[in-house]
Amino acid sequence: MGTPWIEPEVLVNLVHVAGDAIVIADSEERIVLWNPSAERLFGFTVIEAVGQSLALIITERFRKQHWAGYRTVMQTGQTRYGTQVLRVPAQRKDGQRLSIAFTVALLRASDEHVQGIAAIIRDETERWQTEQALRQRLAVFEGRSESR
Q: Which of 76, 79, 97, 144 gives 20 to 30 Å between its CA and that of 118?
């Protein structure tokens, strides 16, 4: 019984129907793949996003840090985030801020050279807002407890 084979069309369909945003950027940080869930999440159509920098969705505050990290990953071929869920703020086309959680995977050529990065992204704004509200309530409660 050999290795199961998945037809390329099935993989294309998977990317198209996935509930999470799937974004791939090349070594120069240009978006090369933007699935329908990325359109829904960020508000940019595939035509608007493909060919653009990831700065499209990165908040101004974190761009410098992002670029430095991206360049390092492209130069070294290493990332410490391969299996970790990252949580950061992002921005939509309309300027609205959101909280996203994502994982990344380095995409390598047959010679092992890193050609780009794939990210699978989901909106966690509601979870983040709930946690912030709970933290604020806890701070108020702890403040009352300390004053007794």
A: 97
pLDDT at 127: 72
The two beta strands, 114-123 and 21-26, are antiparallel
Domain boundaries, the chain: 13-146
**13-146: CATH class:** alpha beta
Cα–Cα distance, 87 to 78 (Å, whole number): 19
Which pLDDT score is estimated for 47? Answer: 98
Produce one character per residue of 116-126: b if its CB has 16 or more CB atoms within 10 Å, e if not. bbbbbbbbbee
Work out the end-to-end distance of the chain between its first and last CA atoms, rounded to an integer number of angstroms.
71
Q: Closest Cα partner for 100 from 15, 32, 22? A: 22
Which amino acid would we find at residue 59?
Answer: T
Output the CA torsion 121→125→126→130 (10° steps): 120
| pTM of the complete model | 0.82
pLDDT of amino acid 91:
96
Task: Tell me what the mean pLDDT of segment 68-93 comes to.
Answer: 89
